[in-house]
Amino acid sequence: PMPSHQARKWADVVFPQPPLQKFTYEIPEKFRTELTVGHRVLVPLGARHLIGYVIDFPESPDYQDCRQVADMLDTEPVLTADLVELAQWISSYYLTPLGEVIRAMLPPGMHQRTQLVIRKIAEPASPEELNELEKRILEVLSDSKGLSNTTLERKLNQKQIRYTLSHLEKLGIVELSHLLEKQAVKPKVENKIILI
Fold first, then answer.
1. In angstroms, rounded to a whole number, what is the distance separating the alpha carbons of residues 167 and 117?
2. Residue 135 — pLDDT band, cuts 50, 70, 90?
3. What per-residue confidence (pLDDT) applies to 185?
């Protein structure tokens, strides 16, 4: 049985490109109630950060010293639990790495990192209830028509602000939109020769 939201401490993640095996990551407390099967996450692997897909929540990791999920890239999972289950069956039946199967299921371009764009859309109803970071975020956003997550983090000199932004979005103060950093979806061109 899958652990309840509160008990979820570990997530199994697969990647749509090498390495194609599964890795287990610790879920930061702030994401434990939100993260579900099918979510895209940004995780550290070696010296890099890669996009992976959550496929399961094990009760304990197979190895020690698990690194933490760095960020959730979307508010909703991009794959349903049923699709993940289907992908696992296809992977097992055809002896194909699960990451490759998931890659084939999703639209081209989905495997690129998305750029989160944040725009202030309202004033807080109760400013005194906001924490210091939330107040600083709104102050920086007040001077712009919208900033990318990277630019905002640089201006604040603060990393991993996704959860705080989600809270401000739930309060109706900011609007979050996800854009592909570079459009990887290209038109398919076929050359045809007609003999007459």
1. 15
2. very high
3. 47
At 41, list the tokens: 């996450």
pTM assigned to the model: 0.64
CA 22 to chain centre: 17
User: Two tokens at 126?
Assistant: 């109760």
CA pseudo-torsion sign 60, 65, 110, 137:
positive
**What six digits make up the tokens of 44?**
């550290």
Angle at alpha carbon of residue 36, lines to 110 and 137, rounded to 5°: 75
Rounded Cα distance, 153 and 133, in Å: 11
CB 155 within 8 A of CB 140: yes
- CA nearest 116: which of 52, 183, 161, 171? 161
Per-residue confidence (pLDDT) for residue 96, from 0 to 100? 92
Sign, CA torsion 36/70/64/97? positive
pLDDT 10s digits, 112-123: 655 778 999 999
